[in-house]
Specification:
The complex is a heterotrimer of chains A (about 200), B (about 250) and C (about 90). Chain B contains five helices and eleven strands. Chain B is of the alpha/beta class and about 250 residues long. Chain C is mostly beta strands and about 90 residues long. Classes of the chains: A mainly beta (about 200), B alpha/beta (about 250), C mainly beta (about 90).
Chain lengths: ~200, ~250, ~90
């Protein structure tokens, strides 16, 4: 049985926002930086975003081409599996479906891959219909490399490890292929509202 | 003891605060009495676990600042911005407060009393804590190989172990000398004006580099990286430099 | 591409890995599956602020080991290490 430290309470509060808070989460005012490796520094003239499938890369954008696409500003809550949640975060990004208009959507699953080697997997439908963006600004400022810049995936309805930082590519495939953390105990889907943190949850 | 380095399952042990000392406005040393403490070596650390009444837990590593003393260990905690654990340990603990510790941990960033090598210690900020355990263990005994500490801190207001270090610098013992380098504000009595650690500091106040000199460097990651570069430039061998990075 | 300094030394992993493995990772020598170099695990790069613990090779940055710890289970992937040499000497 754990030893309780009297008067120790988490900085993170449950509070008036409890109704908007998924189970087991705490609200934070900061923005923790969590990383499985060194922060990639990707020069914009080298940066590419690629979309493809089993047949290979179908479309790719340079930074200028990507920034020429229509983007929108969104305000969303984000929930990290390490239990912090942040309400009302504002991002500017390109809806993922806009990147897939010329791609034959012949796979049910997507592997998102990042500069630096990180990967995560999601069902394709979780990236469509206004549920996901490729974000390049946070709070109106260019996205910091620490937080995944130049551009990251943003999928707020799933745990934040699915919002791959330093996004490099989206690959459609028929089979669900576990990514970096999914290989190591984290849930293949990751719905914070059903507290799907780990395998079998 | 067969397979002494094999730990067996590391378990959490109950620890009670039996003493506290305000080192500075933002740092405190806690003396913990740990149930069933099996001893430790200078340089090792413990993980401290706090459990809130609602079951929320937080774990952080802290270096042990004292040599073996029965079942008592000292840990020095510096306030970290927005740090939920450090703010509790620095401001919310009192004699009698309970927590849990796991350890001792780490078999490499360790100095053993009979290691037959001269030792250069370089500490930045609260990174000086494990080095104090080594310095205190050394005890300035002349027969031992020399040990020298270079301790970099911002100002007299951030100086840890001030009383003890004042005594050590006023009554220097050749076998274990301490030099404090201030980076922002240096008092007139300081070894040299305020500034970051440089190669001249190491040359002037460190041990002369020999192929066998072993260095222990501890502090924030940036400090450690810079100090290691200076040591390499001064001719110390990579294999003889042991580091413990505390994070940004 | 320069990497930002966000890692710690192997010491930072001593607690969580000691708990799971039952031996001291810091005095263990590991061989990297990527570049084949052998190194003291105390000197590998630890990224421990995240959903889990990641240890990377200091030479080639390959992932050596990953650990996730939940309340009732833990997951350990050591496929980045081809071999471990575990120290069995008495502490001096």
């Amino acid at each position: 049985m754990a030893t309780f430290s009297s008067r120790f309470t988490s900085r993170r509060k449950r509070g008036a926002e409890a109704a908007d808070l998924p189970p087991g989460q705490y609200v934070t005012s900061g923005f923790p930086v969590l990383s499985a490796g060194p922060t990639p520094q990707v020069p914009l003239d080298v940066w590419r975003l690629e979309v493809g499938g089993e047949q290979g890369v179908v479309q790719s954008w340079t930074w200028d081409e990507f920034r020429g696409l229509d983007a929108e500003k969104v305000t969303v809550d984000v929930h990290c599996v390490t239990r912090w949640s942040k309400f009302g975060t504002t991002w500017t990004g390109v809806p993922v479906e806009a990147l897939l208009t010329d791609v034959e959507l012949d796979g049910d699953f997507v592997v998102a891959s990042s500069y630096g080697g990180y990967t995560t997997n999601l069902p394709l439908e979780d990236l469509l219909d206004g549920k996901a963006w490729v974000a390049f600004e946070y709070e109106g400022e260019p996205l910091d490399p620490e937080h995944g810049g130049p551009a990251r995936l943003l999928v707020p309805h799933l745990y934040f490890w699915k919002s791959a930082k330093w996004l490099r590519g989206l690959r459609l495939q028929d089979e669900d292929e576990p990514g970096f953390w999914e290989q190591l105990g984290y849930h293949e889907y990751g719905d914070p509202w059903r507290e799907q943190r780990y395998w079998g949850d | 003891m067969e397979g002494a380095a094999v730990l067996g399952r590391l378990s959490w042990q109950r620890a009670t605060v039996v003493g506290l000392r305000e080192e500075t406005a933002t740092a405190r040393t806690l003396t913990l009495e740990v149930d069933g403490w099996s001893g430790h070596r200078p340089g090792q650390h413990v993980d401290v676990r706090l459990t809130a009444p609602d079951g929320y837990t937080a774990v952080r590593p802290y270096s042990i600042a004292t040599p073996v003393n029965g079942s008592r260990i000292d840990v020095t905690v510096a306030l970290v911005e927005d740090g939920e654990v450090s703010s509790y340990l620095v401001s919310g603990t009192e004699v009698g407060t309970e927590m849990e510790v796991r350890g001792p941990l780490g078999g490499w960033f360790v100095w053993n009393r009979d290691d037959p090598v001269p030792v250069q210690l370089i500490g930045g900020g609260v990174g000086v804590a494990p080095l104090m355990a080594m310095l205190r263990e050394h005890g300035g005994v002349a027969e031992r190989h020399p040990m020298r500490l270079l301790y970099s801190t911002r100002s007299p207001e951030t100086l840890l172990y001030a009383t003890e270090l004042a005594s050590r610098t006023q009554n220097p013992v050749p076998a274990s000398a301490v030099t404090i380098m201030y980076t922002r504000n240096a008092p007139d009595t300081a070894a040299r004006p305020a500034g970051r650690l440089t190669g001249s500091d190491i040359a002037a106040y460190g041990l002369p580099p020999t192929p066998r000199t072993r260095c222990y460097v501890c502090g924030p990651t940036g400090f450690v990286e810079a100090a290691v570069e200076l040591l390499l430039k001064a001719g110390l061998a990579t294999d003889n430099i042991r580091t413990e990075r505390f994070g940004p | 591409m320069e990497a930002a300094l966000t890692y710690l030394d192997g010491n930072a992993a001593a607690g969580p890995l000691g708990d799971i493995l039952g031996f001291d990772i810091t005095t263990t020598v590991g061989r990297c599956a990527g570049c084949r170099s052998a190194m003291l695990m105390a000197q590998c790069r630890v990224y421990s602020v995240g959903p889990g613990l990641v240890l990377r090779c200091a030479s080639c940055d390959c992932v050596l080991l990953r650990l996730v710890v939940a309340q009732d289970r833990a997951w350990l992937d050591m496929t980045g290490l081809t071999c471990l040499q575990i120290d069995r000497t008495e502490p001096g």
